[in-house]
Amino acid sequence: MSKKINKIDVTSNTITARGGLSLFNRYIDNVRILNILQESFGHIRKSSKGLSIILIFKQVFCFIFDGTSRHISYFDHLKSDEGYAAAIELNQSDMVSTPMIKRFFSAFGVFSMKPFRSILHKLFLWRLHIAKPDIIEMYIDTMVMDNDDAPKRHGVQPTYKKVKGFQPLQVIWAGKIIDAIFRGGKKMETVVILL
Q1: pLDDT, tens digit, for every residue of 56-91?
Q2: What are the backbone dihedrals phi and psi of residue 94, each rounded to the nearest 5 degrees, phi first?
Q3: From the CA atom positions of the chain, what is the Rg in Å?
Q4: Largest alpha-carbon pair distance within the chain?
Q5: For residue 1, what pLDDT band results from cuts at 50, 70 and 90?
Q6: C-alpha span between 139 and 169 (Å, rounded)
Q7: Extents of the domains making up the chain
Q8: How do strand 145-146 and strand 164-166 relate by DSSP bridges?
Q9: Between these two residues, 43 and 161, which has the higher pLDDT value?
Q10: Quick check: 79 and 101 in contact, CB under 8 A?
Q11: Orientation of helix 33-41 relative to helix 19-30, angle to 10°
Q12: Is the Cβ–Cβ distance between 130 and 55 less than 8 Å?
C-alpha cells in the first residue's frame, strides 16, 4: 500500500456504515437503468413539483439493496439521516418521505405491467450483448409470495403452499428474471422444460 495513515483527527465529513451503498448507487447510475425507468414511467408524475422519477426510483433501489428495514415507514427515518443521504449521493432535501413513497407506489396499476416487462426484456438483451453466450438456457417457474403477515392483503389468494399471497410466473436466464407475469395465488404451479 503506498498510502499510510499519518494522522487521526475529528472530521466534519459525514461518515456512514453503509459504504456499499455508494458503489451500488454508482452501479445503477452507470447501467442507466434509471433513464429507462424515466422513459417508461415519467408520465406517472402528475406535476412538475416534487422529486423526479429518477430520484425516487434511486431511493427505492437503495432501500431494497440496504435491507436494514422492510417497512415503508422507514423512509421517514432515512429522510433525516445525513449519512445515508451522503452515501447515496443525494442532498438531504431530495430524500423522500413515507407519504411520498406511498403516493409513488399507488400510481402504479395494472397498466404498469407491460412497461415493466419491456424493461426486463431490454435488460435481458443488454446482458446478452455483454455475455455473448453460445447457448441460451431459460426456464419457467413460479415464486410464491407469502403475504400472510400483512394487515392489509388486497387481492391475495390462497397458494398451493397454503399461504395467502401471489404467484407470479417468471422466465429466468442465468439466475436473472427476464420476463414475469404477475398472477394471483390460486394459479397452479407450472413447470416447463425447455429443450
Answers
A1: 999 999 999 988 888 889 999 999 988 888 888 899
A2: -95, 5
A3: 20
A4: 64
A5: very low
A6: 11
A7: 19-106, 110-181
A8: antiparallel
A9: 43
A10: no
A11: 60
A12: no
What's the Cα-to-Cα distance from 107 to each of 45, 166, 185, rounded to whole Å?
8, 20, 23
In this structure, is the dihedral angle defined by the CA atoms of residues 171, 149, 76 and 85, taken in order, positive or negative?
A: negative
String of DSSP letters for 142-168 = E--EE-TT-S--TT-EE-TTSSEEE--
Residue 160: CA count within 13 A, CB half-sphere: 9
Whether residue 128 is predicted with pLDDT greater than 80 in this model: the reply is: yes
The x, y and z cell numbers of residue 150, run together, are 400483512
Question: How many Cα atoms occupy the beta-carbon half-sphere of 170 within 13 Å?
Answer: 17
Question: Distance (Å, rounded) from C-alpha 32 to C-alpha 21?
Answer: 17
- pLDDT per position as a tens digit, 95-123: 999 999 998 988 887 677 788 888 889 88
Average of per-residue pLDDT values in the chain = 80
Residue 148's identity, in one-letter code, is D
